[in-house]
Amino acid sequence: MLQKILESGLIALEAIRAHKLRAILTTLGIVIGVVTVVGIISIIQGLNTGFVNQISNLGTDVLYIDRYPWIVTDGNEWFRIRRRPRIREQHYQYIKEYSLLADYVVPQIQGHSSVARGKHSLDRVTVIGTNEHGLRVGFGPQDLAEGRFLSPIDVNRNRMVAVIGHRIAETLFPAADPLGERVTVGSQRFLVIGVLEEQGNMLGNDMDSNVYMAHGAFARTFGNWRSYSIAVKLRDPEKMEDARIELTGLMRTARRLKPREENNFEINNQDMLMNFYNSITRGLWLTAIGIGGISLLVGGIGIMNIMMVSVTERTREIGIRKALGATRQTIMLQFLIESMMICLVGVLIGMGVAAGLAMGIDKFTPLPATISASWAVLGTGFVLVIGVLFGLWPASRAAKLNPIDALRYE
After folding, report:
1. How many domains does the chain have?
2. Residue 221 falls inside a structural domain
3. Domain hosting residue 389, numbered range
4. Strand partners for 232
5. Is the pLDDT of residue 157 over 90?
6. Cα 283 from Cα 27, distance rounded (Å)
């Protein structure tokens, strides 16, 4: 059997070589289909990888108590919840004191302000009020390039100290060491005690333009009218649901809600963002499958058409081979292999073009793009199946030719 396959393969290669232009034009449909499917999938996979990496910093073992849910898709729902009362300092203190499942509780209150030192300044910088654990949750963890982060004493005494991002340090201190120097945030002067390592962007936020300070110092500088967000990191990640129930009860008690009153706060976590993202990309996957399926169908029809032409042109050859003892199985195998080879060439060219496009997109655009080996193998197998399906009828027709009629064909 192996010898028959090798022999049929050599005959198929010779037939393709003899009609190179026709074979190239035939593979073009397959190439377009492969490039379309793999290109879209590579972009989606790149987006998935980037998104997962970014929201992974939120932590699978962290719950966030907020005034609103992170995802609101219904306008009527937004109008219903927009008047919720703010989350205050006392709510954070209550959770911190009474939660049994929390490893630590982190308040976060933020706004935007200008940061200046001498003639240097930056506008619309994100200012975050937090405690000594502020880098362990949220869009962290982040590492310090130099200095230190907030200490419990800084937080308890509301010291006017700050940790600044990499971009702020470069802008305000182009030729000096920021540590021990003072910067003006809003209307107050703060002592710089630490500088964060360069982080880049996360979900559209410039992580290098953040200023961290004690939440009490934030309230002293900007007022206490903003709503808090409270991050609760769990002792045991397996008790996520228990912690959600515990925190709901504590917040209802702290808010003094009656049994029949609905929650006027939200407990968010990473899964909410992931589920929302998956619901969006599901449509992209279906689009990719639809476009790719149409392209490959057109390519498959082109292969069937060319194979029918090939059978007609080689009718006398088929008759001679049958007269010399070739079986129906051998003839059919020859044309099937030829169809699969044409598909394989189209797949290889298409994968090469798609890989080049993915590298170019990843390097020269903000969109990430990656091609995984599993999708490459799956795509190759799928296209080869198309080669078999669309080559089956021409191969069957060739195998059923009567040798006498075939020899008489002009």
Report:
1. 2
2. yes
3. 2-54+274-408
4. 63, 105
5. yes
6. 29
